[in-house]
Amino acid sequence: MIFTVAIDGPAAAGKGTISRAVAERFGFRHLDTGLLYRVVGVLGGDPVAAARGLGPEDLTRSDLRTLEAGQAASRVAVIPEVRAALVDFQRRFARADGGAVLDGRDIGTVICPEAEVKLYITASAEVRAHRRWLEVGGDAAQVLAELRERDARDMGRADAPLRAAPDAVVIDTSDLGIDEAVARACNLVAAKLVRRP
Ligand code: DC
Description:
This protein is α/β, with parallel strands linked by helices and 197 residues long. The chain has 9 helices and 5 strands, in the order βαβααααβαβααβα.
């Protein structure tokens, strides 16, 4: 069975948690596509060469979840050649047999416009920054400033900017518990699976 769930949205909106829960509930594979850009960002050197040489083992590095890695990822993600080098891997993952959940910024718009389910997970910048701050600590105002900076870069770039696909269902998690957000996402997937020919 080929079935793709595309989950896009800005940092700390809840995409990761929802993606993992949907994948587990339906037995689908899951790819956090942000990790691809994070690896390219932390490797340093020529980002295009790093993207072309990237292997699955790179995704298990322990230094990918930091705020610095997120900023570095966002900076290399504006380079069209970096994005192009990562497309095939993501498309193959999305359309391989067995069902897949991919989360990122351009899954429903560029990587897999034919995805059976498209979700756009969002929340206010303040709520997202507060969540991030609870994880990483430090200066709350700086966490908010960096998050806004990353939003602006991800949404403003020329190639594959972050935006909701026209046919995506938007879930705003600003005032929604995680269980409720996961339930909504799972209901949408279940409804689509039932209606398959
Ligand atoms: O989802 P994340 O925070 O791990 O993503 C890190 C950065 O990678 C994000 O700020 C922009 C970039 N990214 C992207 O451009 N396209 C994707 N599909 C996923 C991430």
